[in-house]
Amino acid sequence: MATPDAVLAADEQVRNAARLRGATQALYVLRRRSPADQQRACLFAMGLLARDAAPADWAAAGLPEPPPGGQAADVQVPVRDRAVVLLARVALALHTAGLPAGEQHGRWARLAQFFAARLPPSDHDLFQLRERVLAARIDAGGTSPEVFAELNGALDFHRDVHGASAYLTAIARMRLATAFLLRRGDNDLAASMTMAEEAVSTCAAAYGSEHPVTLVARSLLGHAMLLRAESSTAEAERRRLAGLILAEVAAIRAARVRLYGIIAPNATASLRHEARALLLLGNLERARQVLELALVCESAYNGTHPARTIAETLQTLAEVHRDLGDLDRALEHAREASRIFDLHDPSGHCARRTRVLIEELTAG
Amino acid sequence: MPSIRQELETTRTARWYRHASGVHRAGAWAERVREYAALRAVLADHAAAMPTAGRNAQPAFQLAGLLKLVAERAHYAGAEPVYRRYRSKQHGQPISRWAGADPTVKPLAAFLAEAKIAAFWPYREGVIEVADAFDMTRTEWATAYLRALAAWATDNRALAAYHPGGPPPCVSEDLAVIIGASAGWAAAPSAAGHAGRLTTLAGDVVRSVLDDASITPLGAFDTVRDEVRSMLSPPPESLTERVLRAVAELSDRMIHATGGETVITPGQASRLRATLGSLATLLEQRAGGHLGDA
After folding, report:
1. How many domains are contained in chain A?
2. Are A194 and A215 found together in one domain?
3. In this predicted complex, what is the ipTM?
4. B residues 208-267 closer than 8 Å to A (CB)
């Protein structure tokens, strides 16, 4: 029989891994704090990795160097342990907060490569890490056939392993719906709406209509409806859809304010949808007020960090001011939007659209 | 006033755990640790023997003669040493059982309670380390704690599901600390009632994990987020009064700033001016209406 020392030493690694699992969940809570706080939390996570995980080249994984001076634990957790994988994952989520989407994708890809060299190909956490890379790729505008093949593969995998109404199946379905929404090829909008409707239905049945994951599905469906309304040439249809969207996004936002607080990014995203619905209804002044409120929320959440979503709000606000005849304010907002878009993705669709708006405003 | 961390370090279970696992009782603690590890192995064997196809949920279950199975797995000559450690009569035991001397708590229940506490404890320590370092609000503490509980249930599905199932028994006293039941902080009149409700919600979080193997700790916590947040939100007060008070305080500090003190940075001033400008536009309409009514 093992000696007491041997028993306790063997338990120490299990305990250290579990401690990292608990710390990881607490660090995820800090993802709702400002970008500056998230950077601090990332360094804290790196300190935990340096102390409790076996030594590794974390820079190769796209992570910052741990703060110097920490002392390593007597018994360290192997890098391939899921506790280390998940801690590194939250560290990167905190580290990339606010980075341009393209840069985020590169970092996630590096982290996945780092662990792919250390974990068996069938490892479940590695699979989910690859899904995270895929999500970052979609955020960066990636809608290639390869992306769709991987998204479909992930959806099939979760459906087979966990079932059609399981949590991760719903998440995979929503990722695919988002990709359809971004690609906007023939029938993509219809496909996105169908998938979003499925996600709303299964999530509402499993968790209720105001569970956060159901709200994500509802918001996705609302966004798809918004795009359909904006692309519709029939005025009556536009107004009908806009009326439906307005009621839905108001309900989603109310739930998100209750769940996360008034300045939470997802609540502000609902405000932007609300403003677009108001524009479709021709209510320019109300849309302006809603966008001004969105800017206040963005400012309170982001501080001085130039988040891309601020530029999106400013761009729409510039267009509203133009339509209201206040060209000076329109130009002021458009220039600020352009400055922020240039920091994130200067050749992107939004940056180009804002430059066109500035040209239009300065031409007169 | 003690911090949440300090209070969590002095709960009944925290004191028991510190005493039991202290260096002076290393040998006795190692025996318990060996039995907890044996329990994990027995439950893992049971889980491996169950058909997995199409089984996303983990139902509650129990095994006949569990303490004997644990003793065998721990390579004891018989089950008596295990029973002796977890009986209500604790004559000469170097570590008293967590369940205390209540004779209605049978050895198996006492053992399972300790095994759950021991398995959950490092998750709890991880939460405390981060939450304390970042001066979390009570809502953030509760969120972090319940997410960690979900992670524990994910990693210990069979233990969490073993009859009667549910969270480790230390959760109720921890949540009472987090909600501020003893400090008289909580917003509602009945903080103790809220602590009880929060414990029920902790059970719901574990249930979510057992019902769906694919749910993440976030997804499991999200099933109770709304109620947790509403329970821990500060008491509502007039928003206008809060803004007026904040404006008065900021103005006072700016006017009476001592040399070298930075009350507000130029960037903050610019953001605040833009925000107040938008608010002024909205207020014009309201104030105008009021004057008109008068």
Report:
1. 2
2. yes
3. 0.91
4. 212-219, 222-223, 225-226, 229-230, 267
